Amino acid sequence: MRASLLLFAATLTTTFAKPNSASNESQSREYLERLYGQAKAAYSNRDFETAHKHFSRLHDLLPDWKDNYFNWALSQVFGKRIDRFFDIMDMAVKQYPNDSDVYLKYCNNIASMLNQPNDFLNLDSYRTVKDMVDTCIKATLLDPTSSLAYATTAAMLNLVREYKHSIDVYEDWFKRFGSTVSRKEYFSTLTSFSQVLVQDGQFDRAYKIAEEIVAEDPTVDNVGQLCYVRKIGYPLDKKGWKFCNETLYRSVAEYSLKGSNDLCGTGKWRVALNYSEEAATHPELLTTTLLNPSTAYETYGSLSDPTFVGPVIPKYPRLFHERFVYLIHHPSAYLTGHPGIVHGHCTLYTGGKHANLDIRSFQSSSDTHIITIPHRTAHIIVHQIRNYYHWLVESLPKLLLLQTHLLSLPNNEDIKILLPEKGIARWINATLALPEFDAVRDRFVYYDHPTTARYYFPKGLYEVDWIHPAVDVHRSLDKNAWGVFWPPRMVLETTREFWHGALKRRGMFPTVERLRGCIVYVSREGTVRGFPNEGEFMEYLKERFGDRILVHTGKEGMLEQARVFAGAKVVVGSHGAGLVNYVYTQPGAVLVMVPMDPHIEFCFGHLVAAFGGRHYVVTEVPGAHYFGTYAALTREQMEVMGDTIERAWRDVFEDGNEITSHDEL
Question: Is cis: bond before 317, omega within 30 of 0?
Fold first, then answer.
């Protein structure tokens, strides 16, 4: 969502034609126009608090000026005062209870925020989901002829995960408006419909529609929809990779972003996929240092792992090459977008994300506000950084490796560290609050405006990143849209060593005696890819395994989570970020996992392989798709899970594999 005020000159003129008191200087037309100009100027300068004061004063003087509500509310959206946004729009609908346009704008702004979860967190803490949806429904009831009201309501239902209801509204939209709206509006709505079909698990239908759209209008955005459908619905799909690759290259080629020479003087942009090749070709623009020369390209994993309990999942990766891990230095560079997209000198660097780099939030406008960081800086920004998985095994180890290979070295005391905005996730806050980071705490700077600004580093930008080998003998990483999120073995080992060390320094590391027991079940109760009768399943596990079973809810502190999993013999759960806690375990621990269906993301199998472990994949239990919820477990399926856990438990003690305390870690 781009920041843009609603500037209604005609309404402004009409409103100001008859001020309440011509003799009252505070309400003269001249004063009101000056006040409105000050509000607009404050908004343009990103001074949203001042804009709020001016729009609020305008409301006091002109309470019947409808468009002022919209301007006022929007200024608070971009000022991140979401409480004020809702209060202002509640005033608007109270003032205009029968105006469909007011409800529609209210609904559209909520939907826009929900569609940007990295920018607008926990909207349901301000209004209930029902209240938000009801706002949209009210717009359709007040104006049943509005195609936009129906489409926005359908989009809202999709965003709050009411996929079936969203599909119903979209199908009603096609019946009501499909033959009367413009082709542009028809295909735009059809694209949104394709997306909700993906989220409902109807992949073949979604793909057929996406193909129909591209045949009609092969824009880069429409090809991007093909990429999205294929990578969510089709495991290890080369066709999806091709669409993603095309989307990336075409998007960047269409950029006309211009600026100083170290941004782009010509406005003609290119994609750079490989840091080491770029360093060889353009040494003046970046340099690289290989951090794992003795292990890069090694093979790890096992052909005998995993063990399937039920049907075998085709294409399940078992062997992997160690990636090439680099310390990269850009003498000058820029950063923008949620994934922290490095760019400059007319070049966009994809880094480890390759063709699956998410460029949707890349700021391609030449007018984007620039924030200059006047220091040498290292960054750890990654895709979906507020997600627990991406923080724990992608972003955090980058910080740890930067500490070892850059920040702690002589003459580098001036280098700052760019972190995600404060408060974006409690596990990020808790990790960075540890005393282990006291030595660099005064170097922290924050990436507070990823989607509304471009950060400029004229004195240099450092990062740690990794790329997969050009020749992938095992075909597990090459052209794999999800494989870009599997960190190298070196990176995972760095994460484990950090947390084990932190526990030992506090006397919290599990001793041999304290290791007796511990099957940890990772709960996903009440969330996507969880079991609706999980409470019943947990009772079954407690009845069967007694004090050997612990339930992990994700509400524990970071050190407590690390302690629990460091003592785990068996980790159990359905596919979700909580399984990344396997990274805390000690050698010999076994993972028991219920996969997705289709199982498109093999990150936890890779995690186990990186540590030389074993895992069971229970396909006997019906899986859920990426956005779905598992069916309720039957008693027979609970017993299958219980039998598999017992089998995994026995594995720990076979062939001398019992977990022991490892002081050397």
Answer: no
Q: Are 379 and 464 in contact (CB under 8 A)?
A: no
State the helix-helix crossing angle for 48-61 and 66-78, rounded to 10 degrees: 160
Read off the pLDDT of residues 449-495 as tens digits, 9 standing for 90 and up.
999 899 999 999 999 999 989 899 999 999 999 999 999 999 999 99
Number of domains in the chain: 3
Expressed in percent and rounded to 5, the helix, strand and coil fractions of the chain are 50, 10, 40
Residue 10 to residues 17, 228, 443: CA-CA distances in angstroms?
Answer: 11, 42, 51
- Point out the residues of the chain with pLDDT beneath 70: 1-27, 512-517, 655-665
221 and 115: one domain? yes
The pTM of the full predicted model, rounded to 2 decimals, is 0.91
Match 């005064």 to its residue by tokens. 442
- Domain of residue 612, CATH code: 3.40.50.2300
8 A C-beta contact, residue 145 and residue 413: no
- Which region, left, alpha or beta, applies to residue 102 given φ > 0 means left and ψ of -120 to 50 means alpha? alpha
CB 614 within 8 A of CB 653: no
Q: Is residue 238 part of a domain?
A: yes
Q: Are 465 and 330 in contact (CB under 8 A)?
A: no
CATH number of the domain enclosing 142: 1.25.40.10
What is d(CA 539, CA 534) in angstroms, rounded to the nearest whole number?
A: 9
E strands, 310-452, where? Answer: 319-321, 324-330, 333-336, 341-344, 347-349, 369-372, 377-379, 416-420, 444-447
Give exposure, 35-56, as e/b (b: 16+ Cβ within 10 Å): bbebbbebbeeeebebbbebbe
φ/ψ bin of 64: left (φ > 0), alpha (ψ from -120 to 50), beta (otherwise): alpha
